[in-house]
Design a protein that fits this description.
Number of strands of chain A: 3
Number of helices of chain A: 9
Structural class of chain A: mainly alpha
Protein name (chain B): RNA polymerase sigma-70 factor (ECF subfamily)
Number of strands of chain B: 0
Number of domains of chain B: 2
Keywords (chain B): Sigma factor, Transcription, Transcription regulation
GO molecular function (chain B): DNA binding; sigma factor activity
CATH superfamily of the largest domain in chain B: RNA polymerase sigma factor, region 2, helix turn helix motif
CATH class of the largest domain in chain B: Mainly Alpha
Strand content of chain A: 5-15%
GO biological process, one term (chain B): DNA-templated transcription initiation
Structural class of chain B: mainly alpha
Oligomer: heterodimer
Shape of chain A: rod-shaped
Largest sheet of chain B: none
Distance between the termini of chain B: 54 Å
Organism (chain B): Pedobacter psychrotolerans
Chain lengths: 253, 177
């Protein structure tokens, strides 16, 4: 046999492959299909995420600023009220830290129950003109709101009562009023932040909870600025409310 | 084809089903094995569906698809260009003195022999012999000289002939023994 020429050799290959077919794997089309499918779905959440992140940082900043402010005020208040507390209730000396203040709060409770009696006592005995003085005194003590309400009640009831009869009793009772009202004020104020923190820690399971918590503090509207659904492990955005621009599953219901 | 241009998924699938097995045969010639070939096939079809609007209708549609596929295969080779195994085998493969009969060899046997070639040889042989590129075009596409293309082609031929004789001898032995 003659050695085959290059031309013929090439032609043999060309013919062999001219109509060649090899069946591809079955799942190859689905691979191609998923590659050519639009990928828009994945891009959108990134925008939301970055928006949420910016919001989170901003709100955390504001929150920290506010908390610093309130704790300062809380401490001042605590100092004042405790000072008044000491002689009357005779509790062990409490120091400045807000956490320790919680303990005496429960012990003071019995004193609180006495409060209505004390108030009514004042009401019976006070004269209009005399009432003015204790009010001013109490203002200096800086115990807030609660005091005012009590004295208001006292004022309303005053005219009905016998004026002269028990003036002496008023003078005796007055120091007690001061300390009682002070005691009421202090538990209310100091209690608040601590309970809050405990709740916070219990409810936080994921990032969505953190955001919700912060937004809840800042935004008291029914439709919050931003809210996450956190019932499942993964938190997912459930609603947004930025002025005229609202998104929310709540709206659909 | 119009459906494919519009991005109709069902039309795209139809086009794939009608042409894929032929195109896989093309890819197989350029690849080392089936897996590599199917990777190229996938890339090729993605490219086809992206570029289908550029097809002006000159020449057959299948020819256009085939060209895209071959280009994809070449591109993939150039990307991978794994330390090109250009084995120096000048003396090892001389022109075989005996002729041989192709009758016993099917397309699949030839495919196996081509896939055994070193990557560079396989590229040149496919492009020149099957696709009909000139040595100049091959040189430009693969980034080698025209002379290198020519010498690689003749080496590829020599290797293929040697391998085919081996296969035939093996086949003959099994027939008799």
């Amino acid at each position: 046999m003659q050695p085959i020429r290059d031309k013929d050799f090439d032609q043999l290959f060309k013919d062999a492959f001219a109509d060649a077919e090899v069946t591809p794997s079955r799942d190859l089309w689905s691979n191609i299909e998923s590659e050519i499918a639009p990928k828009k779905k994945r891009i959108v959440p990134i925008y939301w995420l970055s928006a949420a992140a910016v919001l989170l940082i901003a709100t955390i900043g504001v929150l920290i600023y506010q908390q610093q402010d309130t704790t300062k005020r809380g401490k001042q208040l605590a100092n004042n009220t405790i000072g008044k507390d000491k002689p009357a209730v005779q509790e062990p000396i409490v120091k400045d830290s807000t956490i320790k203040i919680v303990e005496p709060v429960e012990n003071i409770a019995p004193v609180l129950s006495v409060q209505p009696k004390a108030v009514s006592a004042i009401a019976k005995t006070k004269v209009k003109q005399e009432v003015v003085k204790p009010v001013e005194k109490q203002h200096i003590v800086t115990a807030p709101e609660m005091q005012k309400q009590e004295t208001m009640i006292a004022q309303v009831e005053d005219p009905k009562k016998d004026i002269k009869a028990q003036i002496d009793a008023v003078i005796l009772a007055q120091p007690k009023v001061d300390m009682v009202t002070a005691a009421i004020a202090s538990p209310v104020k100091t209690d608040e932040p601590i309970n809050d923190n405990e709740q916070n820690i219990k409810n936080i399971r994921n990032v969505g909870d953190v955001v919700n918590l912060i937004v809840n503090k800042m935004d008291k509207r029914k439709d919050k600025l931003i809210q996450f659904r956190t019932d499942d492990d993964d938190s997912s955005l459930s609603s947004i409310n930025i002025g005229p621009f609202k998104i929310g599953k709540r709206n659909k219901k | 084809m119009e459906g494919c241009k519009a991005g109709d998924r069902k039309m795209q699938e139809l086009l794939y089903k009608q042409t894929a097995s032929k195109m896989l045969a093309v890819c197989m010639r350029y690849a080392k094995d089936r897996m590599e070939a199917e990777d190229v096939l996938q890339m090729g079809y993605i490219k086809i569906f992206q570029k289908i609007k550029e097809y002006r209708g000159d020449g057959s549609f299948e020819g256009w698809i085939r060209r895209v596929m071959v280009n994809t295969a070449i591109e993939s080779y150039r990307k991978n260009l794994r330390s090109l195994n250009v084995v120096e085998i000048d003396e090892a493969y001389e022109q075989p003195s005996t002729g041989f009969d192709f009758g016993t060899l099917g397309m699949q046997d030839l495919m196996k022999v081509i896939q055994k070639l070193a990557d560079g040889y396989r590229m040149v042989f496919n492009m020149y012999v099957i696709e009909g590129y000139s040595h100049k075009e091959i040189g430009e596409t693969l980034g080698i000289s025209e002379g290198a293309s020519k010498s690689q082609l003749s080496r590829a031929r020599a290797i293929l002939k040697e391998e085919i004789i081996k296969m035939e001898g093996f086949g003959y032995a099994t027939y008799t023994g």
